[in-house]
Amino acid sequence: MLDHAEPQEKQRSGRSLPVRTGGTLAADAVLRAAREAGRGAAAADRDRRLAPAAVTALKEAGLARHFVPRRWGGREGGFADLITATALIAGQCPSAAWCGMLWAAHGRYAARLPEEGQRELWGRGPDTLIAAALTPPAGTARPVPGGRLLDGRWDCVSGADTSDWILLAAPATDVPAPDTEVWVLAVPRREVTVHDTWHSTGLRGTGSNSVDVQAVFVPDRRTRPLRDVLAAAVEPGASPARQASAHLAGTAMFCAPALGAARLALRSWTRWAATAPAGRPAALADPAVRRVLARSAAEIDAAALLLERAGAGADAEPTAARVEAVNRRDAAVAAELLVEAVERLFRTGGAHVRDATGEVQRAWRDTHTVAAHGALRLDAAAGVYAAWREHETAAEGEGGAQGAAAGPRGAR
User: Fold this and answer.
1) What is the largest CA-CA distance in the chain?
2) Which residues share a beta bridge with 143?
3) Within 13 A of 216's CA, how many CA atoms are on the CB side?
4) SS3 (DSSP) at 148
5) Are 128 and 191 spatial neighbours (Cβ–Cβ below 8 Å)?
6) Of 14, 266, 378, 396, most Cβ neighbours within 10 A?
7) Which intervals hold domain Acyl-CoA dehydrogenase C-terminal (predicted)?
8) Closest-CA residue to 76 (of 223, 199, 297, 239)
C-alpha cells in the first residue's frame, strides 16, 4: 500500500508473503474503523480521548482479538496484517490507530498468563480491551498467600479509560536489586484509578493517562514474570506471533501509526499544493514544491517498505535473532524517514497548512510524538543490530568456507 489515497480496497503488492497460521483482519471492518476514526479525529485531538463510536469500530474491526488464542475465540493473527491495518487507520486518526494497535499487542502479552487467568480475561469473548504499562516497571508487587499485593502509579497508559483490563509491571520489593523479579499483573479496570494527566503535543486522542493502584490483591493466576511475557517462547501449535518476543515486531508496530500520519499529512498538503488561489498558479507549478512532493512521498514509501518487510519477516521467522535485529533497525530508520518527510511538508506548506485546526499540523504533531517513543530510538536499535552483526561476523570467520557457501539469508 504505497499510494496515499483515501481508504479503499487494496491488494497486497506480492513483494513478500507473510507466513500465517491464524486468521486475518477483515478488510471491510478495518476500513469502517478508519472512516469512523477519521470522522472523530479532530474531536479526539481536542478532547484528549477517543469517542465511544471509534472505540466500538476498532473493536468490531477485530483488533482486540487479533493475537488472542484461538481457544478463546481469537484470531492468532500475524504481524504484517496488523501493521497494514494500523497504518490504514492512522491515515485517518493516528490516535485511534495507536490505541487499536496496543489493544492488539497487549492481547499477545496477556496470552502468556496462566490458563485460568486467561479465562478471566476472555472467558466471555475475545474482544476484551487491554491497556498496559510494562516499561518502566513501577510500584511494588509484594508476595502474599495466593498472589501479590499491588501498589503504585504508572504513567502513559494509552486507552486506560476505555479498557476492560490493565497489565501493570511491578518489582517484588520496594528497593529493587538488579536481580529482583519484575511481575506483570492483570488488574480489572474497576480496581484502577485513572488520573487526567495526558497533555501531550501529539497523539492527544489516546488518553494516555496515569493510573493508580492501592493495595489491590492480584491472584497468582493473573500474574507472570515480565521476562516470560516479553521473551520468545516456542509453543507447539501456536501461531508464529504467539511465540515471538516483544521486540521482534514491536517496534514496527509502534512505527505504523507514524506511517499513517505521514500519509495523512501528504494527502492534505498535496490538496493544498494542487489548488490554485484566485489569480495565481497552484503551488505545484513551482519546481521546488514538486521536489518537496517527490522527496517526501518517496521517503514515506521507503518507510512503508521497511515496515512491510518487518512484518513479513516476523511472521515467517518468529524466533530468529537476525529478524529481530533487522526489524529494530528498520523501524527506527523508518521513523526518522517519516519525521523528515512530514517536517519538510510542514515547513513548505504555507500558513493555511499550518493552521491550528488543519490536518497537516495535527499529523506533524502525531508523527513527532510516535517517533519520540523510546522503542524507536536509533541508538538502541543500532546497538542491537551491531551486536548481531558482530556475532555473525565472528561465526562466519569460524565457519570459513562453509559459512560463505550458505549464501544470503534475507535482509542483513
Assistant:
1) 79
2) 148
3) 24
4) strand
5) no
6) 266
7) 253-376
8) 239
CATH of the domain at 244: 1.20.140.10
Inter-residue contact 119 to 177 (CB < 8 Å): no
Asked if residue 304 and residue 257 are part of one domain, the reply reads: yes
Over residues 377-393, the pLDDT tens digits come to: 999 999 999 999 998 88
CB atoms within 10 A of CB 70: 16
Number of domains in the chain: 3
- Tell how strand 182-188 and strand 223-225 pair up: antiparallel
- Determine contact, residues 311/80, Cβ cutoff 8 Å: yes
Residue carrying C-alpha cell 485513572: 194
Q: State the residue for C-alpha cell 499529523.
A: 363
Domain boundary among 98, 122, 146: 122
Q: Does any domain span residue 184? A: yes
Look at strands 209-219 and 193-195 and give their pairing.
Answer: antiparallel
Residue 45: which CATH number?
1.10.540.10
Does residue 235 lie within any of the structural domains?
A: no
Shared domain for 369 and 340, answered yes or no, is yes
249 in the same domain as 157: no
Residue 56, C-beta contacts closer than 8 angstroms, at least 6 positions apart: 36
Residues 295 and 364 in one domain: yes
Nearest Cα to 263, choosing from 231, 301, 289, 227? 301
Domain range enclosing 365: 240-405
Q: What is the pLDDT of residues 305-348, one digit of tens each?
A: 999 999 999 999 888 889 999 999 999 999 999 999 999 999 99
